[in-house]
TrEMBL record:
Protein name: Tol-Pal system protein TolR
Similarity annotation: Belongs to the ExbD/TolR family.
Keyword field contains tRNA-binding: no
Cell compartments where the protein resides: Cell membrane
Gene3D superfamilies per record: 3.30.420.270
Lineage: Bacteria, Pseudomonadati, Verrucomicrobiota, Verrucomicrobiia, Verrucomicrobiales
Primary site of residence: membrane
InterPro entries with a match to the protein in the record: ExbD (IPR003400)
Length: 134
């Protein structure tokens, strides 16, 4: 004779506690946000010249763009030739001694590029480089 066991009530209810999982995900998110290096772009697209001797530089730098018309941009706004010295000195005070990288268009007047280099040096920049493509 067979015996069947019937239960009319549910004895065990299993639940999964996901709050520790959510805590871990939030901690990882905060870690990656804090350790990310944000690069400040110049705000204008330029066609960089090519160079065989180009090297990669630091991620943390002051980027200045010189367009083909000779206009100067930094951080998404046009600063003009007269604003280079003030902007570079202000950013050097905030960030310490970081290199200045000039992204001059291949068709930019040489005089404009030299003026930006000169103004950056007069503002206190120890390292001024020109951005190129390999």
């Amino acid at each position: 004779m067979r015996r069947f066991r019937h239960s009319t009530t549910s004895d065990t209810v299993s639940t999964v506690d996901i709050s520790p999982l959510i805590d871990v995900v939030f901690l990882l998110l905060i870690f990656f946000i804090v350790t990310t290096v944000f690069v400040k772009e110049t705000g204008v697209e330029v066609s960089k010249p090519r160079a065989a001797s180009s090297q990669d530089l630091e991620k943390q730098a002051i980027l200045i763009a010189v367009t083909s018309e000779g206009r100067v941009w930094q951080g998404g706004r046009e600063i003009g030739m007269d604003g280079v010295r003030a902007v570079v000195s202000t950013l050097l005070e905030e960030d310490g001694q970081v290199p200045v990288i000039i992204r001059a268009d291949a068709a930019a007047p040489t005089e404009s590029t030299v003026k930006v280099i000169d103004a950056s040096k007069l503002a206190g920049a120890e390292s001024v480089s020109l951005a190129t493509e390999k």
